Structures are given as structure tokens and as C-alpha cells.
Automatic annotation (TrEMBL):
GO biological process, one term: negative regulation of DNA-templated transcription
Protein name per its UniProtKB record: Ferric uptake regulator, Fur family
Gene Ontology MF terms: DNA-binding transcription factor activity; transcription cis-regulatory region binding; zinc ion binding
Binding site for Zn(2+): C96, C99, C136, C139
Residues that bind Fe cation: E111, H128
Cofactor dependence: Mn(2+); Fe(2+); Zn(2+)
Length: 147
């Protein structure tokens, strides 16, 4: 798990400062590492902490953190980008079409398959994403009309 001091060092090494706005946004991700948040989601949450923060600042900060590979920018085909901390552990996502919940999972078989495919084709994989779309347990149990 990353720590704010580590991120501050990463920023400084790339000639960026830890501004108060960046710190609030990074702190929010540190406190909620399981979340996959859009810029609008982040804005609504950090505005509770600092009412003066603007949506444009949140967008710029998220883009910068993604460009610096501190955050990973993901597209779940719902019309908005979502962000999570970049890390060394490969994981995949289950995306609920009912409530938009995103569930992370790891699977050694899938990782082995990716390695076999890469070796077979002489391909060096630097990143991959696997997304399953469906309905989470809560939506299924509620018996929503779309299930």
C-alpha cells in the first residue's frame, strides 16, 4: 500500500509539488483504495473536505497522477473514466450493470493464460485488463427487472 510520503517523493522526483489540492485527492484515494472513482465522484467527496476545490482542479490532478502512473485510468464503458492506484498486482474487474459496483479479483489461471499467449506469439505484455459485465449478488437478490 502506498503512503503519502512515497507519493510526494514520486511527485518531487518528476518536478511536481504536493499542492494542498493534490494532497486532499491523494488522501481520499489512500483512504478508499478499493474504490474505482470518476472525476465527478472524487469531486463530490473532496468538496466535503475542501469546499473551495473546483471540478477542473480535480480533473487536472487526476490526469496528472495518471500521466505519472501514480493512478491508473480505466474505461469501464459507462461513459466516464475511473481511477485507482497503479500497483504491481494484476487484477481484473467484475462490473455490475445494475448498480455500477466494481469488484476486483485476482486469478492465477488468467495470469498464466496471459503469459502462455504472450510466449506463444513472442509478445511482451506491459498491461492488460479483463472486465466481466453482469449483475452483482445484491442486484441479483433484489430481483431487478433487468435480470
Amino acid at each position: 500500500m502506498k503512503h503519502i510520503d512515497d507519493i510526494q517523493k514520486e511527485l518531487k522526483a518528476k518536478d511536481y509539488k504536493m499542492t494542498p489540492q493534490r494532497k486532499i485527492i491523494i488522501d481520499f484515494f489512500l483512504k478508499h483504495p478499493e474504490k474505482h472513482l470518476s472525476a465527478e465522484d472524487v469531486f463530490l467527496e473532496v468538496k466535503k473536505i475542501n469546499p473551495d476545490i473546483g471540478l477542473a482542479t480535480v480533473y487536472r490532478t487526476l490526469e496528472l497522477l495518471a500521466d505519472l502512473e501514480i493512478l491508473k485510468k480505466m474505461n469501464f464503458d459507462d461513459g466516464k473514466f475511473r481511477y485507482e492506484f497503479s500497483n504491481e498486482e494484476e487484477h481484473h474487474h467484475l462490473i455490475c450493470l445494475g448498480c455500477d459496483e466494481v469488484i476486483e479479483f485476482e486469478n492465477e489461471v488468467l495470469e498464466s493464460l496471459a503469459n502462455v499467449i504472450a510466449q506463444k506469439h513472442g509478445f511482451k505484455v506491459v498491461d492488460h485488463q479483463l472486465k466481466f459485465y453482469g449483475y452483482c449478488k445484491n442486484c441479483t437478490q433484489k430481483g431487478k427487472d433487468y435480470i
